[in-house]
From TrEMBL:
<comment type="subunit">
    <text>Part of the 50S ribosomal subunit.</text>
</comment>
<comment type="function">
    <text>One of two assembly initiator proteins, it binds directly to the 5'-end of the 23S rRNA, where it nucleates assembly of the 50S subunit.</text>
</comment>
<dbReference type="Pfam" id="PF00467">
    <property type="entry name" value="KOW"/>
</dbReference>
<keyword id="KW-0694">RNA-binding</keyword>
<comment type="similarity">
    <text>Belongs to the universal ribosomal protein uL24 family.</text>
</comment>
<feature type="domain" description="KOW">
    <location>
        <begin position="42"/>
        <end position="69"/>
    </location>
</feature>
<dbReference type="GO" id="GO:0003735">
    <property type="term" value="F:structural constituent of ribosome"/>
</dbReference>
<dbReference type="InterPro" id="IPR005756">
    <property type="entry name" value="Ribosomal_uL24_euk/arc"/>
</dbReference>
<keyword id="KW-0689">Ribosomal protein</keyword>
<protein>
    <recommendedName>
        <fullName>Large ribosomal subunit protein uL24</fullName>
    </recommendedName>
</protein>
<keyword id="KW-0687">Ribonucleoprotein</keyword>
<comment type="function">
    <text>Located at the polypeptide exit tunnel on the outside of the subunit.</text>
</comment>
<keyword id="KW-0699">rRNA-binding</keyword>
<dbReference type="GO" id="GO:0006412">
    <property type="term" value="P:translation"/>
</dbReference>
<dbReference type="InterPro" id="IPR005824">
    <property type="entry name" value="KOW"/>
</dbReference>
<dbReference type="GO" id="GO:0019843">
    <property type="term" value="F:rRNA binding"/>
</dbReference>
<dbReference type="GO" id="GO:0015934">
    <property type="term" value="C:large ribosomal subunit"/>
</dbReference>
Length: 117
């Protein structure tokens, strides 16, 4: 893999969706890290996350939508008011998030979290 920023940007821009999904990984909180033995897991709708950087620093909320195409996550409560009065979600890059609580309703997700390696 190249170190050149130009090639890194090109890779991110042209990445297929199954690769983008893994690039949407978010670090786990210290408790979850010890519990599951993993450092990060791809974020999903329903997870509770904490914003680590930006305008909504220290805000906690559930993930409303994961935008894989644009590498962004929409979080409940992290919204901005437009001049016409409408509330719009403020998108956050996954590198600026920390998962506080996992949504483990899905059996496949349980397998992913529990497996070793």
């Amino acid at each position: 893999m190249s170190k050149q920023p130009r090639k890194q940007r090109k890779f991110l821009h042209k990445a297929p969706l199954h690769v983008r999904h893994n690039l949407m990984s978010v670090t786990l909180s210290d408790e979850l890290r010890e519990q599951y033995g993993k450092r990060s897991i791809p974020v999903r709708k329903g997870d509770t996350v904490q914003v680590m950087r930006g305008d909504f620093k220290d805000h906690e909320g559930k993930v409303e939508k994961v935008d894989i195409k644009n590498y962004r996550v929409l979080i409940e409560g992290a919204s901005v008011q437009k001049p016409d009065g409408n509330q719009v979600y403020h998108s956050v890059h996954p590198s600026n998030l920390r998962i506080v609580e996992l949504d483990l309703d899905d059996d496949e997700r349980n397998e992913i979290v529990e497996r070793k390696g």
